Amino acid sequence: LQGLALIGNAARLRRVLANLIDSAIQVCQSGEVIVHLALTPLEEHELRLSTSVTATGMTDEQAATMMQPYVVHPFVSVSPSGVVTDRRIEFFGARVIVARAAGGGVTFQFNQRFEADLSRVAIDLSAVVATASNTVNAKPAQVASARASQQQRADFSRAAGRLRKNAERTNLGALWAEAHRLTSAWQRYTQSRNACASSGLVSALSHAARGGDAVNATMLAHRLAKELEVAASERSDSAAR
């Protein structure tokens, strides 16, 4: 989740997670409580946060004691002996799946949808870069556009830095979010330069990161970062001239 801001019901997530941990600690006499969070991209800006709490020392009897106050629904998983091994419970407003953990103990898992917050870095290359010849007699709106273009060049440079950093960390969620931030801006830039060879980099990165292809996502992120740095340098040079 590092580097990616989420929009959603954080209070619900905290409530369910805190009560799962507290309940597990109350019924267990040994073992550890392990919390794992995984983020999966969905359509558009939506993401699914899968949260699991595993009590490594919890027995079936202790799990039954913990689940007793809540609505329990049999789940489809069946053991070789024909006994239902997984159940669903309604726990503080969340549908939680209860299952035996592969390494021992019991796992409680639930999902919650969030939206990626892409508003913090808005990159827009639609503004025309003002040159030295036309800024002398520029109108206030043109001067504002020139100032905005300086910010846009800085945004390009910062985006390249974020791509390299998250590629080194293999942070696929952050790479996917960065690709979405750049989609419109990069398309306009490549169209204005007739740069057909680079036009598909952003969509390719988004697809690879969303599909969990770490190798290709990392490679594409480094390529896109290099192109962004070249583009930022080019725009700076043209502004200087």
What does this structure look like?
With 241 residues, this protein is an alpha+beta fold. It contains seven helices and seven strands; from the N terminus they run βαββαββββααααα. The chain has helices spanning 10-27, 60-67, 132-135, 140-168, 172-193, 201-210, 214-240, and strands at residues 6-7, 33-41, 46-55, 72-74, 87-91, 94-100, 106-116. Strands 1, 2, 3, 4, 5, 6 and 7 form a seven-stranded antiparallel sheet that branches. α4 packs across α5 and α4 (140-168) packs antiparallel against α7 (214-240). The longest helix is centred in the middle third of the chain and has 29 residues, at 140-168. The radius of gyration is 25 Å and the shape is elongated. The model is unreliable at 120-138 and 235-241 (pLDDT under 50).
Fill in the keyword field for this structure.
alpha+beta, 241 residues, seven-stranded antiparallel sheet
What would you say about this model in short?
With 241 residues, the chain is an alpha+beta fold. It has helices at 10-27, 60-67, 132-135, 140-168, 172-193, 201-210, 214-240; strands spanning 6-7, 33-41, 46-55, 72-74, 87-91, 94-100, 106-116. The chain starts with 5 loop residues before the first strand and ends with a helix.
Per DSSP, the total helix count is 7
Radius of gyration: 25 Å
Estimate the global geometry from the Cα principal axes: elongated
Tell me the helix content: 40-55%
Tell me about the biggest sheet? 7 strands, antiparallel
Fraction in beta strands: 15-25%
